[in-house]
Design a protein that fits this description.
Layout lengths: L9 H5 L6 H19 L3 H5 L2 H10 L6 E4 L6 H6 L36 H14 L6 E6 L6 H10 L7 E7 L10 H11 L2 H13 L6 H10 L1 H8 L4 H6 L2 E7 L3 H14 L3 E6 L7 H4 L27 H15 L3 E5 L9 H6 L4 E3 L4 H13 L3 E7 L7 H9 L6 E5 L16 H5 L6 E3 L4 H12 L6 E4 L13 E3 L2 E6 L9 E5 L4 H13 L4 E5 L2 E3 L3 H8 L3 E9 L4 H11 L6 E6 L9 H7 L4 H11 L4
Parallel strand pairs: 1-2, 2-3, 3-5, 4-5, 6-7, 6-8, 8-9, 9-11, 10-11, 14-15, 14-17, 17-18
Antiparallel strand pairs: 10-16, 12-13, 13-15
């Protein structure tokens, strides 16, 4: 860490001699590979933006100039250059976040890891500073993948008409989000990437014409004045940006730091909104990442830096259960189609795509479009399965409500990473999906307790053709199957103490992945002399008549869920009981209404009291003495 150890902020970056920049870039890459190999993290995206980030901090003056990173997957280099060199607890409790974080540094602006937001943030920051009379620049760094999101284009539409706004938009074009970027805009950028003829014409003209005595330089200047016309002829697609009203610079080799620095300097001096198109390679400088066909190590676990091989072989995860069942369903029903929002591999649709490539639609980072497109597919006689992370359903709420539910379209939403996800921090926890789904008329939501139930409930969901259905499951290794004692009136009984012919003092309603917690609570309560029954409603929303009938006969009802406790299944159960004029006390346990800091899932659950010991202790104080 010869050069890197002396960098504690942007001013130190500016002081590095130009001839030493390549050495600094290599040090950063070596540091990233070594550090991330011990912790896991987003390695590929950060290896690709080393020179770009160096150039950003040499041209602009953070934090006086705001640098807004879209999603933040590519912010590790930024963290290093702003003085954060301790990566030993990356994404772990007490360590640095995997995304920009205002708590960590004044150089971090946006910590939300939902894509396509940077242009709106930057537009607002730049306009706000101008209103206040501040002479400061704003930079948005957005990947080509994030530009598939409609929000980015809404922002561009507004930015383009603000001709004197000091805003620089950097497109970090690596042809990928998680996987290769798709869609019309991706094809547009691909054309720009490969169209360099006009630059070659100008280089040839400068070299040859300026050698010509007297008239040579004048002729070159005339040729240079024709540059816009040449660009329109040789690369008409690039005119799209300029026709929109944005000054376009590029494409620029993103691994030539001097070239990037020169382009950013031109953009900074322009005095209006400028788009700088920078071409980078995800995984640059580390062969195992750069050559990985799936996602170029977008996110990776711990690995051996010498070989690139993982230290641990991954076990079977919840996503695998969904993936395998989708392939089986695809073979049985040709009306089953799948939609993903730029996350084919992470949500487990890659196997289905291999088997049925014409029945998978990757819409890019466009969850709103995915939901309404699904409604259209359903109207056309198909049954679409929309597979996204639970946290991203937030972005498509209006479409789920007004396009799918209002029109009674048979669409199944499969929500991966539901509940507490942990290490990816506050914006990735899937803690709002059941809350927002609970107010959608006609929608049915299932929370499978194990892999067997994922498969069974997915099949039940795709049989529903007159309303949207939702299946949600957590991140990580799949739970061991939990056999039901018996099934009764739409729910499974998982645990029963005392005499089964008598109603229990305590009925525990355990939701999805919290079923093991519910059983553990029941065992502890039984040890204290209470009779307890644990049920899994399976389809948790809306609350079924069977669950209401079972609950009204109990002395106390306990609902345990990994969702926002103030607007989740517990609230729905309480409301259903009141509507049925059953005055049974309902005790709800879930995620409090706060953003949860990054840590392991277990640590987060412990910190919010969603563990058997804490729940049991609280309940014992609430139950009437025997």
């Amino acid at each position: 860490m010869g050069l890197l150890s002396g960098i504690n902020g942007p001013s130190d970056v500016k002081n590095v001699p130009s001839e030493s920049i390549d050495d600094l870039a290599q040090e950063i890459r070596d540091f990233l590979v070594d550090s991330v190999s011990k912790t896991g993290g987003h390695l590929g995206p950060n290896l690709g933006v080393v020179e770009l980030t160096i150039a950003l901090h040499r041209v602009f003056d953070s934090p006086n100039d705001a640098i807004v990173f879209d999603t933040g997957h590519q912010s590790y280099v930024h963290k290093l250059l702003t003085g954060r060199h301790d990566f030993s607890k990356l994404k772990k409790q007490g360590g640095i976040s995997g995304y920009p974080s205002r708590v960590e540094s004044e150089h971090d602006v946006v910590e939300n890891s939902h894509a396509s937001t940077s242009l709106s943030w930057a537009h607002g920051i730049a306009k706000g500073r101008r209103v206040k009379g501040e002479n400061r620049h704003t930079v948005a760094v957005i990947g080509d993948g994030a530009l598939t999101g409609g929000m980015a284009w809404e922002a561009l539409n507004n930015i383009a008409v603000d001709k004197d706004l000091p805003l620089v938009i950097v497109i970090n074009d690596n042809e990928r989000s998680y996987a290769p970027t798709i869609g019309g805009f991706a094809e547009h950028l691909a054309t720009l990437r490969t169209t360099r003829q006009y630059e070659q014409v100008l280089d040839w003209g400068k070299d040859r014409l300026q050698r010509t005595p007297v008239v040579g330089n004048a002729l070159y200047q005339s040729l240079h004045g024709m540059k816009k016309g040449i660009k329109d002829v040789l690369s008409p697609q690039r005119g799209m940006f300029e026709d929109l009203g944005l000054k376009y610079v590029g494409p620029v080799d993103g691994h030539d730091e001097q070239a990037v620095e020169h382009a950013l300097g031109k953009a900074k001096a322009y005095g209006g909104p400028v788009l700088v198109h920078v071409i980078t390679q995800k995984g640059r400088g580390y062969a195992p990442a750069a050559e990985h066909e799936g996602d170029q190590w977008h996110g990776i676990g711990k690995f051996n830096p010498e070989t690139g091989l993982p230290f641990e072989v991954s076990g079977r995860i919840w996503t695998d259960e969904f993936s395998d069942e989708m392939v089986r369903l695809g073979a049985e029903r040709d009306d089953i189609v799948a939609i993903t929002a730029a996350m084919l591999i992470p949500v487990g649709l890659d196997q289905f795509a291999d088997k049925y490539p014409d029945r998978v639609f990757d819409v890019g980072i466009a969850e709103q479009h995915a939901a309404t497109m699904a409604a259209g597919l359903s109207y056309a006689g198909l049954h679409p399965v929309v597979a996204i992370y639970a946290t991203f359903l937030n972005r498509a709420f209006d479409q789920v409500l007004m396009d799918c539910a209002l029109h009674k379209q048979g669409v199944t939403f499969v929500l991966d990473r539901a509940g507490v996800t942990g290490s990816d921090g506050p914006s990735h926890n899937g803690m709002w999906d059941m809350a927002i789904c609970s107010i959608v008329p006609g929608l049915r939501l299932a929370a499978p307790r194990d892999g067997e139930q994922v498969k069974a409930q997915l099949r039940e969901a795709v049989d529903v053709d007159d309303a949207p259905t939702v299946i949600r499951f957590p991140k990580g290794d799949v739970a061991e199957p939990i056999a039901a004692v018996r099934s009764d009136d739409g729910y499974d009984v998982l645990y029963e103490s005392g005499d089964a012919d008598h109603e229990p003092e305590v009925l525990v309603v355990a939701v999805g992945s919290m079923c093991p917690t519910g059983i553990a609570v029941a065992e502890k309560l039984e040890a204290q002399g209470h009779s307890v029954t644990v049920i899994d409603p399976r389809w948790v929303l809306p609350v079924s008549d069977g669950v209401v009938a079972k609950a009204r006969a109990a002395g106390h009802v306990v609902v345990i869920e990994d969702n926002l406790v103030t607007h989740g299944v517990g609230v729905a159960v309480s409301h259903a009981l009141r509507s049925a004029e059953a005055m049974v006390p309902v005790h709800t346990y879930g995620i409090p209404g706060q953003f949860l800091e990054h840590a392991s899932r277990g640590q987060v659950l412990e910190s919010i009291g969603l563990t058997p010991d804490v729940i049991t202790t609280d309940l014992l104080g609430r139950l009437a003495p025997r």
